[in-house]
Amino acid sequence: MKKMYIEERAVCLAHYIIDNKDTVRGAAKKFGVSKSTVHKDVSERLLKINPGLAAEVREILNENKAERHIRGGLATKLKYNHNISKDDNIAM
Predict the structure, then answer these.
(1) Residue 34: enclosing H or E segment and its boundaries?
(2) Average pLDDT, integer, range 80-88
(3) Which of 27, 39, 50, 84 has the most CB atoms at less than 10 Å from its CB?
(4) Rounded CA gap, 65 and 60, in Å?
């Protein structure tokens, strides 16, 4: 991606998270920055730049935080279901 100023990046990250309802991790991967950078941009820097946009992002981040234990459980379930089916194929 092209070089962006920090303020511009913070706003772009916020719009991306809101539009896609994506996680901090997903936004970090998309923009090629660390999770810490995304979190600082949308939690601290964005408050000074655009408080209204920061509030919208905060809603999405809170929703993601509330759901993360469910996503983690589903990932674990898929992991073990995949291993079981793999073992079943070997036994046949």
Answers:
(1) none
(2) 64
(3) 27
(4) 9
User: CA 1 to CA 17: how far, in whole Å?
Assistant: 17
Helix axes 51-91, 6-20, angle to 10 degrees: 60
Distance separating alpha carbons of residues 10 and 49, to the nearest angstrom: 9
Instruction: Look at residue 55 and tell me if it is in a domain.
Output: yes
Percent of the chain with pLDDT over 70: 85
Residue 92 belongs to a domain = no
Q: Does the pLDDT of residue 92 top 50, yes or no?
A: no
Q: What is the value of pTM for the model shown?
A: 0.73
Is 53 within 8 Å of 46 (Cβ atoms)? Answer: yes
Quote the number of domains for the chain.
1
The runs of H, that is alpha helices, within 1-92 are 6-20, 24-31, 35-40, 46-49, 51-91
Domain of residue 33 covers 6-66
In angstroms, the CA 15 to CA 20 distance is 8
